[in-house]
Input
Amino acid sequence: MAVRVENVEFNVRTGNYPEFMNNLRDRLAEHPHLDEVYAGCPVLAVQRCPKQPARWMYINLNLKGQWFHMGFSGMSKPILPEPSTFLGCDGSYPSLLGGRDEDDVKNMLVNDIDLRQVVLLDAVHKLSGYEQPPGPYGAADDDTKLDLVHLTVVFCEGARMALHYDAVNDGQISLNERQVDYLRNWWLMSRALLQDEKTPWPRRLSSETGINDDEQARRVVLLVLNTSTTVHVHGAAKRRRSDCLYFRTDPEAAAAGAADGSFLIEVDTNNGDGDTADGTLFWDCYDGQNEYNKTLTHTIGTTRGPVDVTYAVLSDAVEATVQLKLLLPVAGDDNTALAVYGDITARSHCLAVGSALFLRGSREDAVELAVAAAGGSAVVDVPLQRCVVAVPLDWPLEIDVQLYVVGTNSNGEEGIRYTCFQRLLLSSPGGEQQPQPVFHSGNTNLEVNITWSRDF
Output
């Protein structure tokens, strides 16, 4: 299907902002499936990510015609109809602003984003002359990212939410805390407006925004996101986190991936040497025949034979980030090299299979640890193959750990083996990081930390 491109022009210096934004919203709300959903206000087109969208909306604020795309470093695939350059960041506010946590990002959105026209003009001027730093993925600097946030708030947030549009149009200098709370809950307001009348109103909306019903939500939302469910994928992923998961054909590898909405699984039997995968599975979140909250298996045909992919789609889930640290004894005189191997698996009792976070089951597969040669001890992160998992809200997350640490001296002789025997850790979903007890084995300690995060 040919990709449709629509150009929308706006002169930042002399253009009529209300007229432009009304036109932009009308254009965004015009799509073939407009009559299939109802929320009491315009609903955006079906989200096709990670597939090519049916339509690109180009907002022309400069004359150079140079395009940039954002995504996870090393994983981003240019899908713009025209050549584009990877900016070295994704499009989320934490990535663009570099905040330590969501409270830090909220403070930056309130205190660092100036909505005045003179600042917008400066941002457009600098981005028009932007040159990508050298290197295969030269990352944009902090000033460039801040300019992108200015444009995002003025045009994207202004298009989809009334209070953000009013803030710009009325000459408000900055966002207030309530407007930022609306900003990061737009997806949840959209979901609430589309949900069945019998479904309880999301408690998070009431507590964070003060919005308690459809009528109040429609005063804020001008364009509704065509929302979907959260996805939990079990499979053999090379990357830590992305909506596109790149799979090995090794049947032993079963690392987990997480995505929100539709997802695409790609199987590359050429070990990443080719530009395209030779087998794919696309899960469409809008398919009425989908099954949720159960383990599913799908066979993908490849040039080297069939590959079975096991996955689950969760109707209500929260994202967890798992981190493991080793406290190791380090000698200062024998140049001992340390390596780690074993299995670390995350699972929920409501699913039949677990998700491998670390899969190095034999000594031959051990991963060397970057430990400085010095007396005393050192704290080292276990190099997980994946650290982000999706967890059903009503079920605890179970982390199964079996880990071995091996020391080898400069003569190649294997020294003492420090073993962290099998540990079973249960943790329930929550909003705050939950410190976990330290496990001991010999003179080696293992600490497991789980951070529960919310969509922003």
About this structure: The chain has a mean pLDDT of 74.
